[in-house]
Write a structure and sequence with these properties.
By secondary structure, the chain is α+β, with helices and mostly antiparallel strands. It contains 23 helices and eight strands. A hairpin with a 2-residue loop joins strand 5 and strand 6.
Amino acid sequence: MQKLSLNQTLLQKLSPQQIQFIKLLQIPTAELDARIKEELEINPALEEGAEELPNNEYETDLQDDTYDDRRSDDLDIESYLNPDELNGYKMYGDGSFSNDEEDRDYPMPTRLTLVDSLYQQFGFLYLTDQQRYLGLHLLGSIEGDGYLRRPLKAIASDLVFTQGVYTSEQELESILKKVQSLEPAGIGARNLQECLLLQLRRKDQRDLIVQLALQIIEHYFEEFSKKHYEKIQKRLGMNQEEARQVLTLITRLNPKPGSVEGDDDRAHYLTPDFILTSHNGRLEVSLNSRNAPELRVNRTFAEMLDTYQKSDKTNRNIRETVTFVKQKLDSAKWFIDAIKQRQATLMRTMSAILKYQYDFFLEGDETRLKPMILKDIATIIDMDVSTVSRVASSKCVQTEFGLYPLKYFFSEGISTESGEDVSSREVKNILRELIESEPKRKPFSDDKLEKLLNEKGYNIARRTVAKYREQLNIPVARLRKQI
Protein backbone atom coordinates (compact mmCIF):
# COMPACT_ATOMS: atom_id res chain seq x y z
CA MET A 1 0.00 0.00 0.00
CA GLN A 2 1.40 3.37 -1.01
CA LYS A 3 1.98 5.80 1.85
CA LEU A 4 1.65 9.54 1.52
CA SER A 5 3.84 11.85 3.56
CA LEU A 6 4.25 15.59 3.91
CA ASN A 7 7.72 17.07 4.41
CA GLN A 8 8.55 20.68 5.16
CA THR A 9 11.94 22.00 4.05
CA LEU A 10 13.57 25.42 4.24
CA LEU A 11 15.77 26.49 1.33
CA GLN A 12 17.74 29.64 0.79
CA LYS A 13 18.00 30.80 -2.82
CA LEU A 14 19.67 33.84 -4.31
CA SER A 15 17.68 36.08 -6.60
CA PRO A 16 19.03 36.97 -10.06
CA GLN A 17 19.81 40.48 -8.76
CA GLN A 18 21.88 39.10 -5.88
CA ILE A 19 23.80 36.77 -8.17
CA GLN A 20 24.53 39.62 -10.57
CA PHE A 21 25.72 41.85 -7.73
CA ILE A 22 28.01 39.18 -6.30
CA LYS A 23 29.60 38.55 -9.69
CA LEU A 24 30.17 42.27 -10.26
CA LEU A 25 31.53 42.78 -6.75
CA GLN A 26 34.29 40.21 -7.03
CA ILE A 27 35.74 41.33 -10.37
CA PRO A 28 38.52 43.98 -10.29
CA THR A 29 38.35 47.33 -12.03
CA ALA A 30 40.47 46.13 -14.95
CA GLU A 31 37.75 43.63 -15.89
CA LEU A 32 34.75 45.85 -15.18
CA ASP A 33 35.01 47.68 -18.52
CA ALA A 34 34.85 44.41 -20.43
CA ARG A 35 31.86 43.25 -18.36
CA ILE A 36 29.97 46.50 -19.03
CA LYS A 37 30.71 46.36 -22.77
CA GLU A 38 29.47 42.79 -22.82
CA GLU A 39 26.20 43.83 -21.18
CA LEU A 40 25.80 46.77 -23.56
CA GLU A 41 26.17 44.43 -26.52
CA ILE A 42 23.56 41.92 -25.40
CA ASN A 43 21.03 44.37 -23.96
CA PRO A 44 19.71 47.13 -26.28
CA ALA A 45 17.74 48.62 -23.36
CA LEU A 46 21.01 49.64 -21.68
CA GLU A 47 23.13 52.52 -22.91
CA GLU A 48 25.99 54.72 -21.77
CA GLY A 49 25.39 58.22 -20.51
CA ALA A 50 24.11 60.06 -17.45
CA GLU A 51 20.53 59.45 -16.38
CA GLU A 52 18.04 61.86 -17.88
CA LEU A 53 15.29 63.54 -15.94
CA PRO A 54 12.14 61.42 -16.15
CA ASN A 55 9.38 62.81 -18.35
CA ASN A 56 6.89 59.99 -18.06
CA GLU A 57 5.60 57.70 -15.39
CA TYR A 58 7.39 54.60 -16.64
CA GLU A 59 10.82 56.24 -16.48
CA THR A 60 10.07 57.35 -12.92
CA ASP A 61 9.32 53.75 -12.02
CA LEU A 62 12.59 52.60 -13.54
CA GLN A 63 14.58 54.97 -11.36
CA ASP A 64 12.93 53.80 -8.14
CA ASP A 65 14.79 51.19 -6.11
CA THR A 66 11.54 49.27 -5.69
CA TYR A 67 10.61 49.18 -9.36
CA ASP A 68 7.44 47.31 -10.28
CA ASP A 69 4.97 47.40 -13.14
CA ARG A 70 1.99 48.91 -11.37
CA ARG A 71 0.58 50.96 -14.21
CA SER A 72 -2.83 49.33 -14.34
CA ASP A 73 -4.56 52.57 -15.24
CA ASP A 74 -2.55 52.99 -18.44
CA LEU A 75 -1.51 49.50 -19.41
CA ASP A 76 -2.25 46.07 -17.99
CA ILE A 77 0.96 44.20 -18.79
CA GLU A 78 -0.29 40.99 -17.21
CA SER A 79 -3.10 40.78 -19.73
CA TYR A 80 -0.55 40.46 -22.50
CA LEU A 81 1.44 37.69 -20.90
CA ASN A 82 0.78 34.01 -20.59
CA PRO A 83 2.13 32.68 -17.24
CA ASP A 84 4.00 29.94 -19.09
CA GLU A 85 5.82 32.54 -21.14
CA LEU A 86 7.09 34.44 -18.08
CA ASN A 87 9.73 31.83 -17.37
CA GLY A 88 11.80 33.11 -20.28
CA TYR A 89 12.61 36.47 -18.77
CA LYS A 90 12.35 35.52 -15.11
CA MET A 91 15.17 33.05 -15.51
CA TYR A 92 17.30 35.37 -17.62
CA GLY A 93 20.63 35.77 -15.86
CA ASP A 94 19.46 33.39 -13.16
CA GLY A 95 21.00 30.12 -12.09
CA SER A 96 23.72 28.92 -9.82
CA PHE A 97 27.21 30.30 -9.66
CA SER A 98 29.12 29.41 -12.77
CA ASN A 99 32.59 29.92 -14.10
CA ASP A 100 31.43 32.06 -17.01
CA GLU A 101 33.37 35.04 -15.72
CA GLU A 102 36.53 33.00 -15.24
CA ASP A 103 36.18 31.19 -18.57
CA ARG A 104 36.08 34.34 -20.64
CA ASP A 105 38.96 34.97 -22.98
CA TYR A 106 41.56 37.45 -21.81
CA PRO A 107 43.64 39.61 -24.12
CA MET A 108 47.04 38.02 -24.53
CA PRO A 109 50.32 39.70 -25.45
CA THR A 110 51.87 38.62 -28.72
CA ARG A 111 55.07 36.72 -27.99
CA LEU A 112 56.92 33.54 -28.87
CA THR A 113 56.11 30.79 -26.38
CA LEU A 114 58.55 28.12 -25.24
CA VAL A 115 56.89 25.49 -27.44
CA ASP A 116 56.91 27.75 -30.51
CA SER A 117 60.57 28.60 -29.97
CA LEU A 118 61.62 24.96 -29.61
CA TYR A 119 59.72 23.82 -32.70
CA GLN A 120 61.15 26.72 -34.69
CA GLN A 121 64.74 25.90 -33.67
CA PHE A 122 64.23 22.19 -34.23
CA GLY A 123 63.18 22.85 -37.81
CA PHE A 124 66.70 24.08 -38.68
CA LEU A 125 68.42 20.82 -37.66
CA TYR A 126 69.54 18.40 -40.39
CA LEU A 127 67.72 15.18 -39.55
CA THR A 128 66.23 12.15 -41.25
CA ASP A 129 62.46 11.75 -41.34
CA GLN A 130 62.66 9.17 -38.55
CA GLN A 131 64.83 11.43 -36.39
CA ARG A 132 62.57 14.41 -37.00
CA TYR A 133 59.47 12.44 -36.05
CA LEU A 134 61.11 11.17 -32.84
CA GLY A 135 62.42 14.63 -32.01
CA LEU A 136 58.99 16.23 -32.36
CA HIS A 137 57.56 13.54 -30.10
CA LEU A 138 60.22 14.33 -27.47
CA LEU A 139 59.48 18.06 -27.75
CA GLY A 140 55.83 17.32 -27.10
CA SER A 141 56.79 15.49 -23.90
CA ILE A 142 58.73 18.44 -22.44
CA GLU A 143 56.87 20.02 -19.52
CA GLY A 144 56.28 23.70 -18.90
CA ASP A 145 59.40 24.15 -16.76
CA GLY A 146 61.61 22.69 -19.51
CA TYR A 147 62.14 19.20 -18.10
CA LEU A 148 61.57 15.83 -19.79
CA ARG A 149 60.41 13.66 -16.90
CA ARG A 150 59.03 10.66 -18.82
CA PRO A 151 61.55 7.80 -19.08
CA LEU A 152 62.83 7.21 -22.61
CA LYS A 153 61.89 3.54 -22.29
CA ALA A 154 58.26 4.49 -21.66
CA ILE A 155 58.27 6.90 -24.61
CA ALA A 156 59.66 4.15 -26.88
CA SER A 157 56.91 1.78 -25.75
CA ASP A 158 54.22 4.40 -26.43
CA LEU A 159 55.54 4.96 -29.95
CA VAL A 160 55.30 1.27 -30.71
CA PHE A 161 51.81 0.68 -29.32
CA THR A 162 50.13 3.93 -30.35
CA GLN A 163 51.98 5.01 -33.52
CA GLY A 164 53.48 1.77 -34.78
CA VAL A 165 56.91 3.40 -34.82
CA TYR A 166 59.75 1.14 -33.66
CA THR A 167 62.71 2.77 -31.94
CA SER A 168 65.18 2.02 -29.19
CA GLU A 169 66.09 3.79 -26.00
CA GLN A 170 69.56 4.42 -27.46
CA GLU A 171 68.13 6.09 -30.57
CA LEU A 172 65.91 8.32 -28.44
CA GLU A 173 68.95 9.20 -26.31
CA SER A 174 70.83 10.41 -29.39
CA ILE A 175 67.84 12.51 -30.53
CA LEU A 176 67.47 13.93 -27.01
CA LYS A 177 71.07 15.21 -27.23
CA LYS A 178 70.04 17.25 -30.26
CA VAL A 179 66.98 18.58 -28.42
CA GLN A 180 69.21 19.55 -25.48
CA SER A 181 71.36 21.60 -27.86
CA LEU A 182 68.46 24.03 -28.38
CA GLU A 183 67.94 27.29 -26.52
CA PRO A 184 67.50 27.96 -23.67
CA ALA A 185 70.38 26.02 -22.17
CA GLY A 186 69.19 23.17 -19.96
CA ILE A 187 66.06 22.43 -21.96
CA GLY A 188 65.10 18.74 -22.12
CA ALA A 189 66.98 17.83 -18.93
CA ARG A 190 65.66 14.86 -17.00
CA ASN A 191 66.63 16.15 -13.56
CA LEU A 192 68.20 19.17 -11.89
CA GLN A 193 71.71 17.75 -12.02
CA GLU A 194 71.56 17.24 -15.78
CA CYS A 195 69.99 20.69 -16.21
CA LEU A 196 72.91 22.38 -14.45
CA LEU A 197 75.49 20.30 -16.33
CA LEU A 198 73.94 21.25 -19.69
CA GLN A 199 74.27 24.92 -18.82
CA LEU A 200 77.84 24.61 -17.51
CA ARG A 201 79.01 22.72 -20.61
CA ARG A 202 78.09 25.72 -22.77
CA LYS A 203 80.48 27.94 -20.86
CA ASP A 204 84.20 28.37 -21.48
CA GLN A 205 85.73 25.01 -20.57
CA ARG A 206 89.19 26.60 -20.21
CA ASP A 207 88.01 28.61 -17.21
CA LEU A 208 89.16 27.00 -13.94
CA ILE A 209 85.99 28.09 -12.12
CA VAL A 210 83.83 26.40 -14.78
CA GLN A 211 85.91 23.22 -14.52
CA LEU A 212 85.51 23.15 -10.74
CA ALA A 213 81.77 23.77 -11.03
CA LEU A 214 81.45 20.86 -13.49
CA GLN A 215 83.30 18.54 -11.10
CA ILE A 216 81.08 19.55 -8.18
CA ILE A 217 77.78 19.04 -10.05
CA GLU A 218 78.95 15.82 -11.72
CA HIS A 219 80.66 14.10 -8.77
CA TYR A 220 79.56 15.90 -5.59
CA PHE A 221 75.97 16.92 -6.41
CA GLU A 222 74.47 15.30 -3.30
CA GLU A 223 76.98 17.03 -1.02
CA PHE A 224 76.38 20.32 -2.84
CA SER A 225 72.59 20.03 -2.48
CA LYS A 226 73.04 19.51 1.26
CA LYS A 227 75.43 22.49 1.39
CA HIS A 228 78.40 20.57 2.72
CA TYR A 229 80.72 23.20 1.25
CA GLU A 230 83.68 22.60 3.57
CA LYS A 231 83.82 18.91 2.61
CA ILE A 232 83.73 19.74 -1.13
CA GLN A 233 86.30 22.50 -0.75
CA LYS A 234 88.68 20.13 1.03
CA ARG A 235 88.30 17.31 -1.53
CA LEU A 236 88.88 19.57 -4.53
CA GLY A 237 91.64 21.60 -2.87
CA MET A 238 89.94 24.94 -3.46
CA ASN A 239 90.86 28.09 -1.62
CA GLN A 240 88.23 30.37 -0.12
CA GLU A 241 88.06 32.73 -3.11
CA GLU A 242 87.74 29.91 -5.64
CA ALA A 243 84.98 28.29 -3.57
CA ARG A 244 83.11 31.59 -3.44
CA GLN A 245 83.34 32.11 -7.22
CA VAL A 246 82.23 28.54 -7.96
CA LEU A 247 79.23 28.88 -5.65
CA THR A 248 78.27 32.19 -7.29
CA LEU A 249 78.50 30.62 -10.76
CA ILE A 250 76.32 27.63 -9.88
CA THR A 251 73.66 29.60 -8.02
CA ARG A 252 73.25 31.91 -11.02
CA LEU A 253 72.26 28.99 -13.28
CA ASN A 254 68.59 28.61 -14.12
CA PRO A 255 66.96 25.59 -12.41
CA LYS A 256 63.82 25.99 -14.57
CA PRO A 257 64.94 26.70 -18.15
CA GLY A 258 61.36 26.63 -19.41
CA SER A 259 60.63 29.87 -17.56
CA VAL A 260 63.12 31.76 -19.75
CA GLU A 261 60.58 32.09 -22.53
CA GLY A 262 57.92 33.19 -20.07
CA ASP A 263 55.31 30.65 -21.12
CA ASP A 264 52.70 32.20 -18.87
CA ASP A 265 49.23 32.24 -20.36
CA ARG A 266 48.24 35.65 -19.13
CA ALA A 267 49.85 38.99 -18.55
CA HIS A 268 48.59 40.58 -15.37
CA TYR A 269 48.22 44.33 -15.04
CA LEU A 270 47.43 46.12 -11.80
CA THR A 271 44.82 48.84 -11.99
CA PRO A 272 44.00 50.59 -8.71
CA ASP A 273 40.39 50.31 -7.59
CA PHE A 274 40.80 53.12 -5.04
CA ILE A 275 42.82 56.33 -5.00
CA LEU A 276 44.05 57.57 -1.62
CA THR A 277 45.11 61.20 -1.42
CA SER A 278 46.24 63.49 1.36
CA HIS A 279 44.97 67.06 1.66
CA ASN A 280 46.76 69.04 4.35
CA GLY A 281 47.29 65.91 6.43
CA ARG A 282 43.71 64.71 5.92
CA LEU A 283 43.32 61.44 4.04
CA GLU A 284 40.57 61.00 1.46
CA VAL A 285 39.69 57.89 -0.50
CA SER A 286 37.87 57.83 -3.82
CA LEU A 287 36.91 55.23 -6.37
CA ASN A 288 38.78 54.89 -9.60
CA SER A 289 36.61 56.68 -12.16
CA ARG A 290 36.40 53.45 -14.15
CA ASN A 291 34.44 52.00 -11.23
CA ALA A 292 31.68 54.57 -11.72
CA PRO A 293 30.46 54.29 -15.32
CA GLU A 294 27.48 56.36 -16.43
CA LEU A 295 24.70 54.01 -17.48
CA ARG A 296 21.01 54.54 -18.11
CA VAL A 297 17.92 52.83 -19.48
CA ASN A 298 17.30 53.47 -23.17
CA ARG A 299 14.34 55.90 -23.39
CA THR A 300 13.16 54.31 -26.62
CA PHE A 301 12.74 50.98 -24.88
CA ALA A 302 11.13 52.63 -21.86
CA GLU A 303 8.52 54.25 -24.13
CA MET A 304 8.06 51.22 -26.35
CA LEU A 305 5.49 49.61 -24.07
CA ASP A 306 3.21 52.60 -24.55
CA THR A 307 2.87 51.78 -28.22
CA TYR A 308 1.14 48.52 -27.33
CA GLN A 309 -1.56 50.12 -25.20
CA LYS A 310 -4.17 49.91 -27.93
CA SER A 311 -2.80 46.80 -29.58
CA ASP A 312 -4.49 43.44 -29.85
CA LYS A 313 -3.82 41.77 -26.51
CA THR A 314 -4.60 38.34 -27.88
CA ASN A 315 -1.99 38.53 -30.65
CA ARG A 316 0.84 36.11 -29.88
CA ASN A 317 3.48 38.23 -31.65
CA ILE A 318 2.49 41.22 -29.55
CA ARG A 319 2.77 39.19 -26.35
CA GLU A 320 6.22 37.91 -27.35
CA THR A 321 7.37 41.45 -28.11
CA VAL A 322 6.16 42.71 -24.74
CA THR A 323 7.96 39.81 -23.03
CA PHE A 324 11.21 40.68 -24.82
CA VAL A 325 10.97 44.40 -24.05
CA LYS A 326 10.13 43.80 -20.39
CA GLN A 327 12.96 41.30 -20.05
CA LYS A 328 15.51 43.78 -21.42
CA LEU A 329 14.20 46.67 -19.32
CA ASP A 330 14.34 44.60 -16.13
CA SER A 331 17.80 43.35 -16.98
CA ALA A 332 19.05 46.89 -17.63
CA LYS A 333 17.55 48.17 -14.37
CA TRP A 334 19.05 45.27 -12.40
CA PHE A 335 22.47 45.84 -13.94
CA ILE A 336 22.47 49.58 -13.18
CA ASP A 337 21.38 48.90 -9.59
CA ALA A 338 24.09 46.25 -9.21
CA ILE A 339 26.77 48.69 -10.42
CA LYS A 340 25.59 51.33 -7.95
CA GLN A 341 25.47 48.79 -5.14
CA ARG A 342 28.98 47.66 -6.08
CA GLN A 343 30.26 51.24 -5.83
CA ALA A 344 28.63 51.74 -2.43
CA THR A 345 29.97 48.46 -1.04
CA LEU A 346 33.49 49.14 -2.29
CA MET A 347 33.52 52.60 -0.71
CA ARG A 348 32.10 51.38 2.61
CA THR A 349 34.71 48.63 2.82
CA MET A 350 37.68 50.80 1.84
CA SER A 351 36.58 53.62 4.16
CA ALA A 352 36.46 51.17 7.05
CA ILE A 353 39.95 49.86 6.20
CA LEU A 354 41.25 53.43 5.98
CA LYS A 355 39.82 54.29 9.38
CA TYR A 356 41.18 51.09 10.95
CA GLN A 357 44.70 51.46 9.48
CA TYR A 358 44.81 55.26 9.48
CA ASP A 359 48.25 55.45 11.12
CA PHE A 360 49.80 53.33 8.38
CA PHE A 361 48.24 55.36 5.56
CA LEU A 362 49.62 58.56 7.05
CA GLU A 363 53.27 57.53 6.87
CA GLY A 364 53.43 54.18 5.07
CA ASP A 365 55.31 52.63 7.99
CA GLU A 366 54.61 48.88 8.12
CA THR A 367 55.22 48.81 11.86
CA ARG A 368 52.10 50.98 12.25
CA LEU A 369 49.84 48.29 10.78
CA LYS A 370 47.31 46.96 13.29
CA PRO A 371 46.16 43.34 13.46
CA MET A 372 43.01 43.19 11.35
CA ILE A 373 40.88 40.31 10.12
CA LEU A 374 37.92 40.17 7.76
CA LYS A 375 35.47 39.97 10.62
CA ASP A 376 36.68 43.31 12.02
CA ILE A 377 35.72 45.16 8.83
CA ALA A 378 32.52 43.13 8.38
CA THR A 379 31.41 44.21 11.86
CA ILE A 380 32.14 47.89 11.15
CA ILE A 381 30.21 48.02 7.86
CA ASP A 382 27.52 45.59 9.06
CA MET A 383 27.99 43.16 6.20
CA ASP A 384 28.80 39.49 5.87
CA VAL A 385 32.42 38.34 6.05
CA SER A 386 32.08 36.77 2.59
CA THR A 387 31.24 40.19 1.12
CA VAL A 388 34.37 41.74 2.63
CA SER A 389 36.38 38.78 1.38
CA ARG A 390 35.15 39.33 -2.19
CA VAL A 391 36.12 42.99 -2.03
CA ALA A 392 39.56 42.33 -0.54
CA SER A 393 40.50 39.37 -2.71
CA SER A 394 41.03 41.19 -6.00
CA LYS A 395 41.13 44.92 -5.27
CA CYS A 396 44.03 47.30 -4.62
CA VAL A 397 44.53 50.89 -3.52
CA GLN A 398 46.95 53.50 -4.83
CA THR A 399 48.68 55.45 -2.08
CA GLU A 400 51.54 57.92 -1.91
CA PHE A 401 53.76 54.99 -0.90
CA GLY A 402 52.83 52.64 -3.72
CA LEU A 403 50.12 50.26 -4.86
CA TYR A 404 48.84 47.84 -2.22
CA PRO A 405 46.39 44.94 -2.55
CA LEU A 406 43.67 45.15 0.10
CA LYS A 407 44.69 41.71 1.37
CA TYR A 408 47.96 43.32 2.48
CA PHE A 409 46.21 45.12 5.34
CA PHE A 410 44.71 41.96 6.83
CA SER A 411 46.93 40.08 9.25
CA GLU A 412 46.87 38.19 12.51
CA GLY A 413 47.91 39.64 15.82
CA ILE A 414 50.92 38.79 18.01
CA SER A 415 51.04 39.86 21.65
CA THR A 416 54.04 41.64 23.13
CA GLU A 417 55.46 41.69 26.64
CA SER A 418 53.59 44.94 27.29
CA GLY A 419 50.28 43.21 26.48
CA GLU A 420 49.74 45.04 23.19
CA ASP A 421 48.85 43.32 19.92
CA VAL A 422 51.02 43.94 16.86
CA SER A 423 50.47 42.86 13.29
CA SER A 424 52.06 39.61 12.17
CA ARG A 425 53.37 41.57 9.20
CA GLU A 426 55.52 43.64 11.56
CA VAL A 427 56.90 40.43 13.07
CA LYS A 428 57.64 39.06 9.60
CA ASN A 429 59.58 42.19 8.69
CA ILE A 430 61.70 41.90 11.81
CA LEU A 431 62.21 38.20 11.12
CA ARG A 432 63.39 39.01 7.59
CA GLU A 433 65.81 41.63 8.94
CA LEU A 434 67.26 39.13 11.43
CA ILE A 435 67.84 36.56 8.70
CA GLU A 436 69.39 39.14 6.34
CA SER A 437 71.87 40.20 9.03
CA GLU A 438 72.75 36.68 10.24
CA PRO A 439 76.25 35.22 9.77
CA LYS A 440 76.25 33.59 6.32
CA ARG A 441 78.54 30.74 7.36
CA LYS A 442 76.38 29.91 10.39
CA PRO A 443 72.74 30.99 9.85
CA PHE A 444 70.30 31.25 12.73
CA SER A 445 68.14 28.21 13.44
CA ASP A 446 64.42 28.62 14.14
CA ASP A 447 65.15 28.15 17.86
CA LYS A 448 67.69 30.96 17.74
CA LEU A 449 65.29 33.21 15.83
CA GLU A 450 62.61 32.50 18.43
CA LYS A 451 64.94 33.63 21.23
CA LEU A 452 65.95 36.78 19.32
CA LEU A 453 62.31 37.73 18.74
CA ASN A 454 61.46 37.05 22.37
CA GLU A 455 64.32 39.35 23.40
CA LYS A 456 62.73 42.08 21.26
CA GLY A 457 59.49 41.64 23.22
CA TYR A 458 57.48 39.46 20.83
CA ASN A 459 55.84 36.43 22.43
CA ILE A 460 56.21 33.93 19.61
CA ALA A 461 56.71 30.17 19.50
CA ARG A 462 59.26 28.30 17.37
CA ARG A 463 56.54 26.72 15.20
CA THR A 464 55.17 30.21 14.48
CA VAL A 465 58.66 31.34 13.49
CA ALA A 466 58.87 28.38 11.10
CA LYS A 467 55.43 29.22 9.65
CA TYR A 468 56.31 32.88 9.07
CA ARG A 469 59.68 31.92 7.57
CA GLU A 470 57.96 29.59 5.09
CA GLN A 471 55.42 32.31 4.21
CA LEU A 472 58.36 34.59 3.40
CA ASN A 473 59.81 31.84 1.15
CA ILE A 474 62.97 31.67 3.26
CA PRO A 475 64.59 28.22 3.47
CA VAL A 476 65.81 26.53 6.64
CA ALA A 477 69.18 27.48 8.15
CA ARG A 478 71.04 24.58 6.52
CA LEU A 479 70.02 25.75 3.05
CA ARG A 480 70.87 29.39 3.79
CA LYS A 481 74.46 28.53 4.58
CA GLN A 482 77.08 30.21 2.35
CA ILE A 483 80.84 30.04 2.04
